[in-house]
Amino acid sequence: MIAYIKGQLTTIEDTSILIEAGGLGYEILCPNPFRFQESINKEVKVHTYHYVREDQQTLFGFKKKEDKQLFAQLLNVSGIGPKGALAILGTVSVPEFVSAIEQEDDKYLTKFPGVGKKTARQMILDLKGKLIVWLPDEKNEDTIFYQDGLTSQEKREHIEDASEALKALGYTEKEVKLVRAELEKAKEGTVDDFVRQGLQLLMKK
């Protein structure tokens, strides 16, 4: 089992990154590869899940260990495969997802691609109570919760990831800074939401 890979990040694609380590190039599928944008051509450590089946071997990579652990938990849910698990992790933070599971918010869970009401209920049944270690600390007075469980810190991280994705699409630092101020006024949003909003704002300028 490959627990992690440490090496030089050489390439970022729409769905994957390429890490060169020990003379080998590892193609690693990621929920949001552009989260690694600031580390291009630098040494990075990527937490990996080695997915093995009779007809395939695939490496899935994550910036945070808890993302990898949640991915593994999602694969144990009937009706959720690697593609569905990646889609979830690409649009939500771990605490936000766990909060939805603990609150049995199946309406929120069905927002993810390929997740219907039956699958949402199965996720709640299989995961409730197993992930609470990743819930935000309610005693932290500096944490502000937005609608759908998004905290101020998570919002900042989402906007940062969206900003890096916009730069990767060819927009300059100056252009991204101009729309970032507008994005920070939003009360909620996933990384993809902020990318879409950013593109709409940039096209108006």
TrEMBL record:
Bilayer-crossing regions: none
Cited InterPro entries: DNA_helicase_Holl-junc_RuvA_I, Hlx-hairpin-Hlx_DNA-bd_motif, NA-bd_OB-fold, RuvA, RuvA_2-like, RuvA_C, RuvA_C_sf
Compartment(s) where it occurs, according to its Swiss-Prot or TrEMBL record: Cytoplasm
Pfam families in alphabetical order: HHH_5, RuvA_C, RuvA_N
GO aspect biological process, one term: DNA repair
Record's signal peptide: none
Domain Helix-hairpin-helix DNA-binding motif class residues, every copy: 72-91, 107-126
Recorded family membership: Belongs to the RuvA family.
Function description: The RuvA-RuvB-RuvC complex processes Holliday junction (HJ) DNA during genetic recombination and DNA repair, while the RuvA-RuvB complex plays an important role in the rescue of blocked DNA replication forks via replication fork reversal (RFR). RuvA specifically binds to HJ cruciform DNA, conferring on it an open structure. The RuvB hexamer acts as an ATP-dependent pump, pulling dsDNA into and through the RuvAB complex. HJ branch migration allows RuvC to scan DNA until it finds its consensus sequence, where it cleaves and resolves the cruciform DNA.
Name of the molecule in the record: Holliday junction branch migration complex subunit RuvA
Organism encoding this protein: Halobacillus salinus
